[in-house]
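ARCHIVE CARD
SHELF: 3
SLOT: left
DATA:
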Amino acid sequence: MAKVRHYKKIEKNLVASLMNKIRVFFGFLGGLFVKFFKICDSKLTIMVVPHSQSKVLNFQTNVFALTLGVVLLGGVISSFVYFNRKAASSSAEIGRLMSENRRTLASLDELRDENNNLLQTAKRFQTSLSQSLSLLGINQTSSVAKASMNDSDLSSLFDTQEQVTGSTREAADIRKLNAYLEGAVQPIEQIGKMLESQETLFSDIPNIWPIRGGIGHISMQFGQNVHPITGQWYIHKGLDFSTWRSGDPIVATANGQVVTVAYDSGFGNYVVIKHKHGIYTRYCHMSTVRVKKGQQVSQRQVIGAIGNTGVTTGPHLHYEVHIGSDVVDPAKYVNVKLAK
């Protein structure tokens, strides 16, 4: 029992000590709060003394009100600085967006101009294609008409209603143009197939420049000319091609068979090739001949070289085209446009 009383006494002393410390702590906190409120409630007098002899202004306040006013003023100034920076940033962003919008509008105007140019080009293409198809006898109704959206040409494309404006009109024009071009693919493919089927015919008829690489120029045309040696008017029965030098390769202008390889006092070394459909070609004044009589030659095959043999005033090729017994203007069978 004595031990129990001893333990209870110790416990009671501990509780009393703890409660005493708690009272001391809260008393200390209370003192701090009292001191704080006393400091905040301390009276202050603010005097405004003018440089003139005006009356001195006195303002009475306390520390709490002054501190609160300083905090509020700092908050207002901080808010002003923050929102001013935000406004400047927003203004810069608006300026950037306006500049980008101007560039976009300029690009849109350029796109519209290019779209108009494209439409004009498409119109010329349509006219040329229609003429070519008519000449070739190709029916374009079934292909181009369907793709043109209820029209056989680009008339609907170029007659767009005026009330359709802006990017909507450009998009509609491009869609119609795309549809028309898709429809034009088939007749163009037909032209390609027709040309491919006629490739043999083209290679059997003289139709290319008789000097390899298309070099040189025509120094004398077919028909009435002044003879360069006699000075008399005469009928020139061919075309003279000149490169101002000897040795440039002469090519066969069509597939055929060599029927003559000979020398003539006027023509010099010359070659005659027989082609299909009763056509003959003659190549004169050659410095060298690279084919033999009876030999089969193909279009663009080298048959000799430009020379100065026979009656000439300089190295050149005299080229003739005969149909049966008639001599014709070779310019009609040369794939170039003669300057007049």
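SLOT: right
DATA:
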Amino acid sequence: MRVSLASFALLACVTSGNAAEWRVQPIDTPARVTAIETVDGQVRVNAGGLWYRVALQDHSATLSFFDRPARPKNPDDAVRDSRVATGTRDIARAWFSDATEAYDHGVLGDKIEAGALVIERRDGTKETVRLGADAVFEDIEPRLADLDGDGKDEIVVVKSYLKRGSALAVIAERKGKYEIVAETPPLGSPHQWLNPAGIGDFNADSRTDIALVRQPHVVGMLELWSWVGGSLRKTAELPDAANHIIGSRALNMSAAADFDGDKSLDLVVPSLDRSRLRFVSFVPAHEIASVALPDKAVTNLGLVAIENSPPAVVVGLADGTLVAVRRD
């Protein structure tokens, strides 16, 4: 489906913030948009099976064809359709292994989850963290982040207990061995799931935080968990958020940047019904703006840089169109 740039207009309905500063900009595409990925910081849009780069200027948007390189072959023991995380610090790669059907949730499109995480160090040595029979990794790609500032990566994953639901878990090296060192309380019942939304210093206290959405399909509570003294502590929450669609493999329906110009990291995430994009600050926890979309968000969100302005957020909609939401 094509949307002409000639039809560009101020479509946003903003319920907070300055309405004149936000707009929704349609972007012309050669076919229906089905996916958005961010690779090495660059947004890639899939339209009609082909991949394109996005460029935005003051009042124009362009797509340029991108001959997407083939993904490196997954390790033989990686769970089918999972993704390998690559790092720049002590961890070179990490991936989920030991495929299992012990958990019958299927929130990510099938009922195959992981029973283990493989960590490959920079020197090529590998170590495996295996879960017990009471839990699985209900996740696709591990997240590498230096949570404590020691120059070494921790690993953030979704761990789901068969009888108690999901928890956010942190895996780190302790005395030369990787293990789960912290996790949030499980949500309480089977098939209750959470999805991480971002990692960074969101509340400007010089500590790393992990944002997540608790039960993004039915509850939609955006929570901020801070890494304090080697443990996770919930420091804020806001309702009305969703960063996943049941059965989808797209887990990145959120993005982090300084959207309001206060030099603190903010978060953007769809509303629970995915009809709006909500821009949120945690300094303190409040909504910067809520911007109505022409149709429901269905893809990952991507950030596109604009000179002398905060980045725009690009998203594919249920009707196959592509839009950029931007603050001037």
